[in-house]
Structure formats: C-alpha cells, structure tokens
Amino acid sequence: MNIIRLQPDITGTVAWPTLSASKKSVVTVGVFDGVHRGHQSVIKETVRIAKREKCFSVVIMFDPRPAFVHAYAAKNGGMEPTSDVQDTQKITGVDERLRMMNALHVDYVLIVRYDLEFAAKSFRFFLGQLVGKLGMRTLVLGEDARMGANLEGTVESIGQLAEGTGVFELVVVPDHGGHVFVPQQAAPRMPEGRGEPADPFEGLNKAEQRALTKRLNSKKVRVLSSTNVRWLLGQGRIMAANDVLGHTHGVEGTVVHGEERGRTIGFPTANVETPIDGYLPVDGVYAGWLIDLGPADEYEESQRAYSEAPEAGAEPISQQYTSGGVENRLAEHSPYRWPAAISIGRKPTFNEQSGHDERVLEAYALTDDWLDLYGHRVRCEFVGFLRPQIKFDSADDLAAELKRNADETRELTSRAS
C-alpha cells in the first residue's frame, strides 16, 4: 500500500497526483472514522472491483475530521483548529485506520488535509478532478454518503452526474444494518451498575419505544455509523460498539510515570499520557487488553512519513506503507499482549489526597512479569464494561475490588480471544 499526503492550497485546490499514465482507478471517499463494518464493506467492494478491472484501488481519507473542523470554526469565529487542538470525538487515529486499510489490501491511500477552502469546492469540481487526475473510472460509496459544498453531493446527485457525463460509474454499497435512535445531544453517561449496560430500548413495545425516543429527543441514525459507535462507547456499551465496528475498539498513547499508588497495593498500572489517540469510552473500569507497540520514539519515526503534511502545492510524494512491525505485536498470540483491567476516570478514592482531578487512563496487565513500559507506545483495547468509578473507604477495600476486576477480566478476555 502506498500513502500520499495532500495539502490544499489557499484556494482549496489539491494538487492531485497522477498515479499512472494508463492504469485507471477505482475510488472511495470518506473519513472512515472507526473503520466500522459499513466502511469495511465499501473498502472491500472498492478493492474487489479494482482487481476485477485491473485498476488501482484508491481510498481518499480526510484528516482532520470534517465535522470537527466545521464545529470548531462555528465556535471560534470561522477559525480552523490548529494542529495542537485535540479532536476528542474521533474514534480512531490515522495510524490505526491505515493499518486496517493495509489489511484490506488497498493500493493507495490519499490523506487530504481538510480545511474550509477545500470544503467550499463543489462536488462536481471535486469529482472532475478525480476523473482527470486520478483516472477514476468507478466511484464506490455507501448509501448515505455526501460530499462537496453544503454537502450537496448526495448519492442521487452524484448518480445523475455519472449518468449524464458518462466518464465514471457510481457503485453504491447497500447498508443492511438498519437504523437506531440516539439522543440529539448524546452526552457520555457512566453506568450505575456492574456489567455491560443493556440497550434502553430492549423489551419495550412500539408505544414505549416512541415515548422514550421523544423523551430523549432522539434522532434516527444508521446502526453502522460512527455516530452510533460514539453513543455506545459513551454509555459503556463496549460489546455493542465492538459489534458495530467489527473489531475491538482501542486507544493508543505513551506510558508515563504516574503517582504509582497502584504498585503500593499490589496492582501496578501503566499510565497513558494525554492526548490519547482515539475515543475514550465513558468513565469506568473495563476488561480488555494492553499491547506494547514498542518505544514511542521508534514508533513515531516509523510513521513520520505519513504524519507530516506537505507544504501546500508541493509535489505529491508516494510513500510505501509500513507499520513498523506493529501488526506482529497486535497479533492474537503476541508476547507483547496481555489481558488488562483498564480504568478511566478521576481516581475518586485518592483525588482528594493528591489534589489531582484530571481524567486519566490506567491499565493493569494481568501478568506475573514486571513490565517496564515507560516511554513505550501502548494500545488499550476494550472488551467489556465491569463497573462504574466509585470511592472506596480504604486502600484495602480498593485492592479487594481490583482483584475481583482482574478475575472478571480473565474470564471476559478468555471468552473474547
């Protein structure tokens, strides 16, 4: 797989590369945040058609997320977010998305830096560029795809353009996942009980479902959507979110020194530095996995070619993709992978003593070996919700609960592996 980063110029125009003088392309376009089952179906169809037609399979991916850019601009007088502003709503970072696209055997991923000038281009101009520059002969989209200025490029309008011009074909991949209702303002809410939270609509008749939908001021979204994944993760419904994703949700970051209280009570944890790459589920304790991806500086160096945006108007450079060996570490039976009880929250038992009230991510790996992970990039994957964050009367009570969480984690991860 080859990666090309593209930076629009001040007018929003992208210097699209010429991939070949003779070979055409089959293209799909989107953010692909989470790379959920719907995204996977679209990408797989893109690859399948490309192989059949002896074309390049091309994924055009936007970074940062368009929704993030527009929301930030709306709150900041039209200003765009700078590179140091964190998008806390993105489900997966670019690195994870690239790993998954490589596993799906995509030929090219074009990462376009999304800005307001680029967003103002019409979908007709955008698609004309793809036909003229990339040699696009087929465009593959999901049923609800939209693009271009004011999102006027619906599947219907793109289909009319394809039919009217005859220069490319539109293939729409059907979504068989159905729909679900989520609140308009879907704020994270920590479950009150132990274990995986239930679907609030489960067991209700149609009248009761309508009443609950109205009370929550809900909107109808696709089950296979990034919006639904965020809603589920924000309610602690990890198993349901993983089912929509088609893979285990995880976040990544660098291990740093913490207060080391866990070590004093027999449960040493890996403390992950913020900002964290990926969407943090709601506060609570989870069963999951801790995976050592290696020294953070070595990892960052291996990904540097894909992480640094070129200057606007610069000649596009194609880079052969490499994960830096991360796939081997992520493998199911990797020696760098351990079951882990993962805590997200503000340490209610100790925060009054410490004076620290920031939200933190800690993972206790279930292994008898001492893990020196300081300065390493790690991935925390979530398998199921165990319990809410609560304040314990003593360190001994906390230690007893952590042992229970470790036992629950062993059971859940053994079933999930």
Explain what you see.
This protein is of the alpha/beta class and 417 residues long. It folds into two domains: 2-175, Rossmann fold (3-Layer(aba) Sandwich); 248-299 and 326-416, Riboflavin kinase-like (Elongation Factor Tu (Ef-tu), domain 3, Beta Barrel), CATH 2.40.30. The chain is 33% helix and 25% strand. Strands 8-5-2-3-4-1-14 form a seven-stranded mixed sheet, with helices on both faces. A six-stranded antiparallel β-barrel has the order 11-12-16-15-13-17. Strands 6-7 form a two-stranded antiparallel sheet. Helix 8 (226-234) packs antiparallel against helix 9 (238-245). 38% of the residues are buried. The model has no long low-confidence stretch (mean pLDDT 91). It catalyses: FMN + ATP + H(+) = FAD + diphosphate; riboflavin + ATP = FMN + ADP + H(+). Belongs to the RibF family. Keywords: ATP-binding, FAD, Flavoprotein, FMN, Kinase, Nucleotide-binding, Nucleotidyltransferase, Transferase.
* Overall tally of domains: 2
The CATH topology of the largest domain is Rossmann fold
Number of helices: 14
Give the second-level CATH assignment, the architecture of the largest domain.
Answer: 3-Layer(aba) Sandwich
Organism: Bifidobacterium pseudolongum subsp. globosum
Family: Belongs to the RibF family.
Protein name: Bifunctional riboflavin kinase/FMN adenylyltransferase
Pfam family, one: Flavokinase
